[in-house]
Amino acid sequence: MPVHNEDIAVIFDEMADLLEIEEANPFRVRAYRNAARTVRGLGRDLGDMVAAGEDLTALPGIGKDLAAKIEEILKTGSAGALKKLHKEVPASLEDLLKIPGLGPKRVRALYQQLGIKTLKQLEKAVRAGTVRELEGFGAKTEQSIQEAIAAHRTEKKKRFLHSVARQYAQPLTEYLRNQKGVKQVVVAGSYRRGKETVGDLDILVAQGARSDVMNAFVDYDEVAKVVSQGATRSTVILRSGLQVDLRLVDEDSYGAALHYFTGSKAHNIQIRRRGQQRGLKINEYGVFRGDKRVGGRTEDSVFKAVGLSAIPPELREGHGEIEAAEKGDLPRLVELAELRGDLHVHTNASDGHASAAQMVEAARAQGLSYLAITDHSRRLTVAHGLDTKRLRAQLAQIDVLNANLKGFTVLKGIEVDILEDGRLDLPDEVLAELDLVIGAVHSHLGLAEREQTERVLRAMDQRYFTMLAHPGGRLLQQREPCALDMARIVEQARQRGCFLELNSQPQRLDLTDVYCQLAKAEGVLVSINSDAHRTEDFADLGGGISQARRGWLESADVLNTRPRTRLRKLLRRTMG
DNA sequence: GCCGTTTTCGGCCCGACTGTTTTCAGTCG
Description:
Blueprint: H1 5-21, H2 26-40, H3 46-51, H4 64-76, H5 80-88, H6 93-97, H7 104-114, H8 119-128, H9 139-154, E1 160-161, H10 162-177, E2 182-187, H11 189-192, E3 197-198, E4 200-207, H12 213-219, E5 223-229, E6 233-238, E7 243-250, H13 254-262, H14 265-277, E8 281-283, E9 286-289, E10 292-295, H15 299-305, H16 321-326, E11 341-345, H17 356-365, E12 370-376, H18 388-403, E13 409-417, H19 428-431, E14 436-440, H20 449-460, E15 467-468, H21 486-496, E16 499-503, H22 513-522, E17 526-529, H23 541-550, H24 564-574
Parallel strand pairs: 4-7, 11-12, 12-13, 13-14, 14-15, 15-16, 16-17
Antiparallel strand pairs: 1-3, 2-4, 5-6, 6-7, 8-9, 9-10
The structure holds one DNA strand.
């Protein structure tokens, strides 16, 4: 069985948990967590890197010891050090750590003094009232543990699609903005970094003088529960289950607080360490040399204090953005306004809800100057997919449409099913009449990695194949991505000169950031498409842009930032 | 366990809130 980066990260995280319960050196624990993060965020497969004889200690946070452990895990699937830890600390204690309010110290106390190893045993002890007898525990702690177990049982802490979180964030920020004394309100955290899902909302409020905004916040009528409330920081749970943290700062600290609250944690740690090396202390109130404030009113001033140009929020994952900023190598990230067209659009000929003319009108309203009509092919009967005859009828309609359009072009395309054996669902003679052919996997999603990869590679090898739609096939929170060797797919795209889609549907956002970077490194152009089925779906392109930015893409890395003539040339090259 | 503009030892990001305390530990972000 191949060992994936994620498998290695999981082992390192597990070791960190167990070491923490053992009260190991906290910095050693941190080293394992850092390593897990590094491994997880790596664009390339560690197995490939080792096979290529690369030096893993060049990776941040990976030294001689961890490099050896990675090689051991790649070879054997596990780590001897983890097995050794399991002999000392029961693995089931990790489950206890997942209960909010229970950290390593308390879990250790529960285990050592009450012999509690499992959630079930903990629940029993809590009911019996024995937990409150322990030093450092009390009746209130006991009760909150009981509630936390119940919550843990019924629902896993759920993450929200960015697009869903926005529906809660917008009215709440509007409400806060209307409070007296409030100067600025912004949603920071992973939301601001444009992640595809968010676990909570981190809202930053800057006040002029003293304001009563904290009370207003906990009184907001969608608040189901106040988790904590202080003078500068409060946490609530909304009725939807979404957790919201509010941080209140003075205007002087706004930039520092915004930077701190935007994260990511890994990025913040690196920035603070950098500050430290320069004799600076950086916290959410500002940048300080001794007692003297030397920055923090704006976010840029924080970066400036540590000798860096401003880093866009989408890049702040601790994946090399600081090194890039240091060398002046930060990408100029692609922006929504740079998109000239959309190359994946459905109409009511298949499973869309509007006519081609209506979709064109909506695209124009978004400021686009071309779109490709790409309905489904016949194999997808549930979507009323087109056969050769119906496709040709549509092509004639598009000719009529184009004849009546000025300054806008409708391209002829299809989202053709990639059949199980890698053939395309329509014959070459009709595909040859199109401007572009988007291939997509809609069936047999569960094939093993080797088969799935070969299938897609065969499809990409077909004479008329322009672009691979939603390559991973994932549906966020519903369906895992297909098992696919993306490195080979990207390589094939490079050789064939074809393109990869970044599908902007909020539940797809596929390519992921990591594969955007891979495509960019290989010189494969990415097309940011809406996959619109309704006129309002063009608004989803904003989410695609966020994802592309998180993948370090610049305008030049994106196919549909090209003007029409240039685009046509690129498409023709692929269509042989 | 990692790392180096105090470089092979001695550091390692920083602060808020809660509960159980009466000055702080634990947890969280």
